[in-house]
Amino acid sequence: MSGGGSTSKCARLCRLIDDSLRPYAVSVAFTLLEELDVVPMTKEKEKEILIALSQVFRQVQLWNQEFDSDSDNDSVLLLDCESGCSSGSGPHYEEIQCLSKILADLIVLLTFESRYVQHLATNVLVVVSEFVAASGRNWDAFIHLLCGCLDTAITIKLTFDSAPSPTGADDSNFGSSSFVIKLKQKLKDANWSTAASIVRVLRTILKIFNTENDVQFLTFYFDSVSSCLSNVPWDLLTQICVPPNVVQKSSGADALFHRSVFLGNFTQFLCSLVEQSYAVEAAGDSAKKRPDLQIIINFVPKLLNWCLGKQGDCVNTCILLYFRHKLLVLMIRLSFRTSLDCSILVSWLGLMHAYFSEYLQQSMTSLKAVQGDCLEGSPFLLSVSDTEVNNLCSHHVQRLAVFLFLRCSLGLISLKSDNDEKCACASQNLCLPSESNVNLECCGRKKGILELYNWLQGHLPVSIFVDHNIYLQKCIDFALSFLQLYMHEDDLLFKVLLQLFCVPFPAERWFQNLKGDLHNAKGDMLFHVSNVFNPVHLFHLFLLELHYDHQVLLDYLISKDTGISCAEYLLRCLRMVCDSWHSFVQFSVGGQNVNQSSCKKRKWDGSLFQTEKSSSSVKNDRTSTILEKECNEHKYGCKDNQTIGQRYMDAKECLLSLKISVESLHQKDLFPYNPKVLLKRLTRFQELCLRDEQNYL
């Protein structure tokens, strides 16, 4: 594709925008020159602009479809971009001027008071970005210009004065500083809604590109966005505060609302950046860390202050819940996408206590799991009342907050550093000293254990250490309530279960010594944390919550969303069970929480994945189950279905049934991935069951 052809395509687009929208953009410019507060908008003018925007949108879409029909377009597109970058020469000056003019005319429409005009103008900007990308040249310049628009809009709003030129304003990618000067004049009275609209455009562009095929484009994208985020004087946003008496007025309430809309869109945009930047890393050199992630990490304390600080008292409950939800999602994604050092983890724990303490302290033992307590793709459900929405969102935010708290605390425990190796507590039991103000800065491991211990003390007070049986039952009750909290959000469920494997667990040695002097273990923080989050007990409780239905486990394993995480969890649990067999066999559970099961059932009844046993196999299984039950009753001296032995039998039947189902699907090539490792672990589990059966027959 020649440079002339590309320029002609851009010129055609420029003429379309100029003929259709420039009259309205010019009227806005004149209004701004007259220094009016808002752009006047009559119903008739709004209708005219919407019709014009719709016509432009449809026409550019048609041109994009023509590009898509060209089978050679993708290869030429990548070749042109690579040649333009590798040569070190800037794009054609005429085309840059054309893109600058297009952006200026479209961006100025975002200053209109009408939300419909703003929405349709953002859609036009998105299809224009697709057009520029498909035309084969200067997509990186377009994104650079668009980020310059965001930089200018935010900086003008923050300074309330003549804003400094954005980074790169005199760069060849902008053509000349005249673009910035004109843009600053056109956006002179832009509000936060304008900046929010530009953020939505950038986020939508990010979502429509296929990472595997467009790595080069996304690299340009991240470089431009990182430059923009680094350049904006964000500290000024902290100084902007709307006084409570102004909030009562219409203008003050509108300003606060637009500010909240921008912060919500901006936080959502950062979440998307974190998610997509990981995909770019995976497609390129994974050894290189993208600088934009560190920029976003530095944003976290600022965002929490802006969204949940003093001004948070002025916004309504739904907006606050949305802020909490998105901020927690952002922090969780960052924790998975990059290695957080000790200082960041400690800082985040402090932020958790400052902004999410109510969710960390919220009781779980009194929580009754409800089948409808789930959030389908969003923290808000429009079909229920505000009170019900707030309750559902509260449970959702609690799940996120507790998970992030555990991830930070356990991250400190798992983190190794030079200081930890020199610290004496690294090789000693972490016992809680009698002095409450002891210095615990010696290592991250101790800090993490202390955070977990103090959090558990709010749910399981020290008084439960008095009696051994009561202590164990209370630990199991809390673990069950904890598990029930996550049962209806499958993605979080397996994330938190896998995270808890970071809890130090000395396996059989703890079980053998558990009935020792409990009073002496009263101050042992590691002892307490390990007993509450005992992975063998949690696995038993997990199967209990599924009512030992192996088909539910099968649904998890073949699901696109949970298949990998569920398989990883089962593999780690089966290894732990085989290493801690005595603890697994003797597990028992009782108490009131058992009757408040979440009743997790199969998501669907897919006939493709149903497996059948022969009548003889079923008969043998039933005979074996009866025989094993009698052996266990003799072995443990009990016949109560809720006592020792029965839970082992239920878990055994569930896991062996799962093994049969997975084997059957694998033999028919119906299992979505290779389950050989899982089958190997299940076979080992079966061998241990047979060994016990032979020992007690």
TrEMBL record:
State the InterPro entries in the record.
Lines_C, LINES_N, Protein_Lines
Ranges for domain Protein Lines N-terminal: 465-586
Give the Protein Lines C-terminal domain ranges.
651-687
Coiled-coil regions, chain positions: none
Q: Which domain of life is it from?
A: Eukaryota
What Pfam families does the record point to? LINES_C, LINES_N
Q: What is this protein called?
A: Uncharacterized protein LOC107424715 isoform X1
Source organism (scientific name): Ziziphus jujuba
Gene (name only): LOC107424715
